[in-house]
Write a structure and sequence with these properties.
By secondary structure, this protein is an alpha+beta fold. The chain is built from 6 helices and 8 strands, in the order ααβββααββαββαβ. The structure holds iron/sulfur cluster.
Length: 187
Amino acid sequence: MPSPRRLVPPFARQLAGDRLGLGRAAQSAHSERLTARTKTADKVVQSICPYCAVGCGQKVYVKDEKVIQIEGDPDSPISRGRLCPKGAASEKLVNSPMRETRVKYRPPGARDWEQISLEQASEMIAERLIKARAETWEEQTDDGELLKRTLGIHFLGGATLDTEENYLIKKFFTAAGALSIENQARI
Ligand code: SF4
């Protein structure tokens, strides 16, 4: 049995308090009964879209310690509530069953990936960094000018890195003597 309001023609409903026809006047009987996921969240956390250097503001809706929805943050001076299709689908990135959360390693020549621990991966990266630095270190030019650098280490960051992470990465690799330090968000 439709509600009495549904018996009123849409245009008349629009005139009666929803002049743009974007709210209750445009609701179907079905959508009238639905409740937005954002209404049932336990808490809302402000965040930044992880995808690109625009840095649009996001509101992350959490229920039972699980992310249930991510929407644009109207308080963000950058995006004023808007998200592009990729940012608007961020919840799928968080909750996708295909999301890879383990470290995968494919040894040289191998066809298959194997799973290794984060500790082992960190050790392997550190060992290779130290070895590459030692093997490619340039102390000075042939004329005796100081160089103190290596062209054997390069760093390419990703758009998901935040300002603080980029700061630390730049500081660390410059201290290690690397010159080629870049971030994908700039490319
Ligand atoms: S919502 Fe789109 S434009 Fe904004 S930061 Fe994310 S990916 Fe970039």
